[in-house]
Amino acid sequence: MTLGTPIAKSKTDLALMREAGRIVAETLALVSAAVRPGVTTAELDHVAYDHIRARGAVPSFKGYGSFPASICASVNDEIVHGIPGPRVLHDGDLFSIDVGAFYRGFHGDAAVTVGVGTIPPAWTRMVMVGWEALAAGIAQARPGKHIGDISSAIQTYLEQHGYGVVGDGLAGHGVGRKLHESPSVPNHGTPGEGALLVPGLTLAIEPMFTLGSPRWQVLADQWTIVTLDGSPAGHVEHTVAVTEDAAEILTLL
User: Fold this and answer.
1) What's the half-sphere exposure (Cβ side, CA atoms, 13 Å) at 95?
2) CA atoms within 13 Å, Cβ hemisphere of 96
3) Using one digit for the tens of pLDDT, what is the confidence trace for 214-226?
């Protein structure tokens, strides 16, 4: 995928991206609240679609590269890009929800991983550490830093806690008028390398992590990405804007 040149956003652009991000955050909250044993991933997709449309936005994912749904619904060993359908969620499942919304010319993009009913404590801890790794990455998203500083912070935090860090082409990205813009934001990296961060740059930062090996494969549907060893995986994400001082998270309620 060719992402082009990084694009700094104006104050007007950022105001619209805040609203797109709010719609994404609202949608994730609604879908997360609807997650329970017995619900299908298609039903959760409808919750997302209905709210995004009611807020005057369009689901970013639906029709993107032929993706058929409004959310990515990934269960257990599915890392990302799971397609919603008749699959029923069961007590003990680990469920990742990725949502994008396109509002007045701009995209917001974020993801959460939640337990269905009661999940093993080790899975709960993995997700918590994933959020902490995301926070460590976001803390590096300030002027004068480089993409490699974000990537390294995420990688270091996850690996120090014993989790597999998914890479090999799966990464965060710039976001704005297009869902995927430059620069790529990998979850592996070296401090001081990669694109220079400047005010107005907007990034979707998204750690993907596993309890086992980070190696992955694509299923026959050509979308769903699963761990090669069958270990459970998590995915968390925020859209952030680099400001004059630090990072502003755009996908918070």
Assistant:
1) 30
2) 33
3) 999 999 999 999 9
